[in-house]
Amino acid sequence: MAWNLKNPRHFDTLMNFTTEEILYLVDQSIKVKENERNGIRPKGLEGKTIVGIFEKNSTRTANSTFKAANYLGMQYFYNGPSGSNMGTKESVADTAKVFTEMYDICLFRTFGHDKIQDYAKNSGIPLINGLCDQEHPTQTIADLQTIKEAFGGFKKLVKGEIKPLKVVFCGDYKNNMGNSWMYAAAFTGMDLVMFGPKEYEQQCNKDIVKFCKDLFKKNGGSITFTEDKAKAAKDADVIATDVWVSLGESFDLWEKRLKEMHEFQVDKKMMDMASKNAIFMHCLPAFHDMNTEYGSKVAELYGKKFPIVKNGAIEVTDEVFSDTKRNWSFVEAGNRWTSIAAIIQELLK
After folding, report:
1. In angstroms, how far is the first alpha carbon of the chain from the final one?
2. pLDDT confidence of residue 2
3. 203: DSSP letter
4. 347, 141 in Cβ contact below 8 A?
């Protein structure tokens, strides 16, 4: 299908997209992956340029953008957290206008969604939201691709009846990844269970909740909230989680978050309560052992008070994360570059 493109059109928030457009992007991302494996490279974007602006450090998004640009024959320039004067000596708006004169497309990773909006309003080239505190839209496309690759689609056959896949997001579901999973379920008609502290439900982004509930009415699927691990895991096809203190948040938040969320860790017991073919997903980085500075520090400071983290495993146990059959997080990570390549192709048509 052809997009109804504005000039330029931005991949800034998934609220600006239709179900058909999102499903099309997922299929295009799968096609990019297949073409690359078969040595097929697209034509038409050779010599085009993309700039990455990262106010937050990045592993997957930064490197996925480089891989996507390389595959498309484009040139990529990376601005790290100290790589430009934006926000210190130059405004977001002025930076957007400067890069409009230099590049063909921009990917921006930042904090508040207001910066994404400010950049998009002042940019004469397409903008891709590489993550903000509100949502992580390129991750959503990669996650849907991963589910489609794992299950063949977003529905399942149960005793002769077609039913939606069941996805469980565990922990801090009020954060940007909680929002992103809400979008993912609503666009595809999956049943989503938010498994975390009850009080977090009132802290969810009300605009996104309304947008997604309207989509559920059209596409099927549902969203529910629970603190009951057995209820959440029963018949689940996908169990996903994210870190409990997000990138850029203060380390001092760990004790508060552990107190709120120590009962919502993904462990083997939870996976065993899920469907036989259930998979685990994590957008990464994951704290599952003592081999990270954060994991070991949290274990040292809070392991006695919260025994679940005494071995450095926080949101997911190492037993679950090391299960190569069920853990699809690395496939999910690999799909980041194909999703970004698909998005670039569509925005530059």
Report:
1. 12
2. 47
3. G
4. no
Provide the total of helices (H) and of strands (E) in the chain, helices listed first. 13, 11
Residue-level pLDDT at 248 = 73
H helical segments located in the chain: 19-37, 60-72, 92-100, 113-122, 137-151, 176-188, 206-219, 229-233, 254-261, 268-273, 293-302, 318-321, 329-347
Q: Which residues of the chain have pLDDT under 50?
A: 1-5
> For tokens 């003592």, what's the residue?
290
Convert the pLDDT of each residue in 269-314 to its tens digit: 999 999 999 999 999 999 999 999 989 999 999 999 999 999 999 9
Backbone φ/ψ region at 205: left (φ over 0), alpha (ψ -120 to 50), beta: beta
As a residue count, the chain comes to 349
What does pTM read for this prediction?
0.96
Q: Using CB atoms within 10 Å of the CB of residue 2, give its burial: 0 to 12 exposed, 13 to 18 middle, 19+ buried.
A: exposed
Signed CA dihedral, 296, 323, 179, 141: sign only: positive
Contacts for 149 with CB less than 8 Å, ≥ 6 apart: 30, 331, 335
Phi, psi of 52 (to 5 degrees): -105, 125
Per the structure block, which two tokens stand in for 300?
């040292």
What are the structure tokens assigned to 288, written together? 């599952």
Q: Which residues lie below 8 Å from residue 41, measured CB to CB, with a gap of 6+?
A: 35, 71, 72, 73
The structural domains of the chain, ordered by start, are 14-135+336-347 (3.40.50.1370), 137-334 (3.40.50.1370)
Predicted confidence (pLDDT) per residue in 219-235, tens digit: 999 999 999 999 999 99
**Closest C-alpha among 264, 303, 70, 307 to residue 173:** 264
Residue 7 confidence (pLDDT):
76
Tell me the C-alpha to C-alpha distance, in Å, between residue 298 and each of 118, 260, 316. 36, 15, 14
